[in-house]
Structures are given as C-alpha cells and as structure tokens.
Specification:
Length: 369
C-alpha cells in the first residue's frame, strides 16, 4: 500500500481495487503521502497556479426534486429568485474587474422556452461586453439544440454533475422522474456540441462505498472529461435525503477526508484535467478547507461574485460559507490564503483545461494555460 501513491505519481496504472484502497485511507501519514504524490502530478501537468471562476448563482427556481438539494422544487421554505440581466452583467463585471478569467452561471434546472431564452440572452450580453471572459454554464440537462444555442451565444464550458456513476445509488438520491441514462446522454451531447465538459459526484453519500467512488473515477476517465467538480455530501435540513444516524463532527470530518482522498486519486489518474476545490470543503473546514483541496491536487476555486442579498436563498446544503461576504472581501481573502500555501492566482487568463487543449490537439505550454 505505502508505495501505491508514489507508483501512481510515476505514471504506473492503478487498478480499481487500488484506487478504492487509496480513497478509503484514514491514517494521517498515509493520507499525506497520497496528497504529496497527487501534488507532484498536479505541479508537473497543470502547474501551481489557481484558476478562479466567479460564481453567479442567477436563480434558485428548479423543476427538479433531487432528494439532497435545498432548492428542490418541493421546498416551500425558501424564497425563489431570478437575478435580472443587469444584475448578472454587474456580477460578471465584478469578476472581470478582479481579474477572474471566467464566470460560472449556475441555476436551478429549467427547460421552458423563457428560461432557455433568458440564459441565451445573459450569455450573449456577457460575451458581448467582456469577450475575454470565459463563460461556464451549470444549468442542468437540456436538449442538444439548447446546448448549441448557448454555445453559439458565447458559452465555452458546461458543468453537469452525474452525482454518482452508480445507477443504483443514483436512484436512491433522486426521484424516479430523474433518468440516469438521460443524464449520461446529456454529458455526451455536451461533448458533441463542442463544450469543455465537466462533471462530478457527491462524496460520502449514505450507503456509498470506496469501490463506488473508485468506479466514479473510472467513469470520469471513460467519459474523457475536462473538468471535475466534486465535494463531500453535506446534509440539507429541508431535503429528504438523510443519514440513518445523526450527523456528528466525526462523520463530517471523515467525509472531508474522503473528499481530499478523491481529489488526490482523480489527479493521480486523470493528471491534466481541471479539478475544483469545492465550496463544500470550505463549508466543512472554513479555515483551510479549500486550501487543503489545492494541496491534494485541485487547481480551481469558484468564489461567489453574485449579490449577497440572495445568497441565503441558494443553500444547496447546510453551512454554505460566505453567505454575507461581498465579492471584494472574498477576493482579498483568497489572495492571502492561496499565497500562504505557496501558490498564486492566475489572473485574466481563461484557465482552459489542459486536457481539453490536448484532446483538441492544441497542445499548450504551461504558461499558455
Ligand atoms: S440538484 Fe440541481 S437539478 Fe436537483 S433540485 Fe437541486 S438545483 Fe435542481
């Protein structure tokens, strides 16, 4: 076991069982060895610069009812909102001002014509006003014609989390109306439509095993993804998915550790993809959660640049951080915390995943990323 991370860092392949063994690690010294090996791979393949994605949570209205989510359709306890086009543009302007290379427009899933037109208009206006700002969408499953329209308007990347690659687990955390195969097809459609494609999973779900998570890593590899966004599952008090036993600090700490282990194994196996240090890491360890994610192999952070007014209404899970911090404070804090771990923030660059550039045969040098 002890030489597994080193062997993987040197390019040796890992079997499914070996990945599962690394993901399941608990002993601190062994975990540190895993993170160091993953960090060496990260440094070699994608460098030690952190890319920022300014997150704009533009709406919390959702047609879906995922069992773990705080903004699910049936949650009547939250106020629903949609930012105006002007508010979205203002947030994009802030991201541009702070040197973020790109923004992420994230909202509940809606496929009605009004919502599709609205996103197209928002993307077009951001792209028109800030042509050098990369635009990522996270707007759920859509028809490929919609993906194409949004791409033509100026979007370059799309995040669509599978949440788990286990079909059985998928149906335990989603209502029957969600279709695992439709989600798979949507990921393929995004690729066909020419996006840089990202997906990810929740880590530490009730009933999920280390082998399930290892299969998730295989899934990422087989789908040839460019970006991975995954984080520990955090129970949401208004959502039906709950653990059979009460939440404890020990359980949360274990999910945090699993989150870091997954980042490290994904980095060891996929090497040149972009991996986000998810906000859920920060929620579980406010002081240094995201930084530990970077040290385990992540290279992207997605700070919120939306207006603080609506942030309480966008609580996908409990304890979401930065609910009352404005974008400027978050940016300054990030500068400081990233510098503390010996990395730097890449400003005014889109941070295109090296994997995407490689697979489209546009091979970059590290300074071009
Ligand atoms: S996870 Fe996404 S699609 Fe599911 S209810 Fe929440 S916002 Fe909607």
């Amino acid at each position: 076991m002890t030489d597994l991370p080193v062997r993987a860092a040197e390019g040796g392949p890992l079997s499914l069982e070996e990945m599962a063994a690394l993901i399941a690690l608990e002993e601190e010294k062994a975990c540190q060895q895993l993170y160091q090996a993953a960090y060496a791979v990260k440094s070699r393949y994608v460098g030690r610069q952190v890319y920022l994605r300014g997150l704009i949570e533009y709406a919390n209205i959702c047609a879906r009812n995922c069992l773990y989510c705080g903004i699910r359709r049936d949650n009547r306890k939250i106020r629903r909102f949609t930012l105006s086009l002007e508010e979205i543009l203002q947030a994009a302007g802030l991201a541009h001002l702070y040197g973020y290379g790109s923004v992420v427009l994230q909202g509940g899933e809606r496929s009605d014509a009004g919502a599709v037109d609205f996103i197209e208009e928002a993307v077009g206006r951001i792209h028109g006003q800030y042509p050098d700002l990369g635009i990522t969408l996270s707007c759920g499953e859509q028809d490929i014609s919609v993906y194409r329209r949004w791409k033509a308007a100026g979007a370059a990347r799309y995040l669509l989390r599978i949440e788990t690659s286990s079909r059985e687990l998928f149906y335990r955390i989603h209502p029957a109306e969600n279709d695992f195969d439709a989600r798979l097809q949507a990921l393929k459609d995004l690729r066909t439509a020419g996006y840089q494609v990202g997906s990810g999973v929740m880590i530490g779900l009730p009933g999920q095993t280390a082998l399930d998570l290892a299969r998730d890593v295989m899934f990422f590899r087989d789908m040839d993804l460019d970006m991975i966004g995954m984080g520990p599952w955090i129970p949401q008090h208004d959502a039906p998915l709950a653990d059979e036993t009460p939440e404890t600090p020990e359980k949360a700490a274990r999910r945090f550790q699993l989150g870091l282990n997954m980042i490290a194994v994904v980095r060891l196996v996929l090497k040149d993809v972009n991996i986000a240090a998810a906000t859920a890491l920060q929620a579980l360890r406010p002081a240094d959660g995201r930084e530990l994610g970077l040290l385990a192999g992540a290279n992207v952070i997605m700070p919120n640049v939306g207006d603080v007014v609506h942030r309480e209404d966008y609580q996908l899970y409990d304890g979401k951080p930065d609910l009352d911090e404005n974008a400027e404070n978050i940016r300054q804090a990030l500068n400081d915390s990233v510098a503390r771990i010996g990395e730097s923030i890449a400003t005014f660059v889109p941070g295109t995943p090296r994997h995407y550039l490689e697979r489209t045969e546009n091979r970059p040098s590290l300074s071009e990323l």
